[in-house]
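Hey, I'm writing a tutorial for new members on how sequence and structure tokens pair up, and I'd like a real worked example in the thread rather than a made-up one. If someone can provide the structure for the chain below, I'll link this post from the tutorial.
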Amino acid sequence: MSGNLESFGAYQKALELFDQVVDDTSQFLADRKLERLVSQQLASADSVCSNIEEGYGRESTVEYRRFLIIARGSLRETQGRYQRLRHWMPLEIVERRVALAEEINRILSATIKRLNTK
């Protein structure tokens, strides 16, 4: 793909979200009842970044678009899990993370739509 991956807004914000997931969940690592939720939250946030990266490295616009759609699915998973983690996290943090996820989703959706025309 043309351009620089690091300048793609969705990617920058996905990295930011991943860092926030790490910070938000690190306090729960020792809590056995939250072990699965934390592990899945880390994995889904990582998947957002990873799928953007993988798609960017592909040879075709069609494949790039497909990986952005997968990234968007992982983003939705991360966002939904934040809603469930509201039982253990301050609501303000949950709301900020969900808002960031919505912002990333808007960028991904616009990019996917734009790639449809190519």
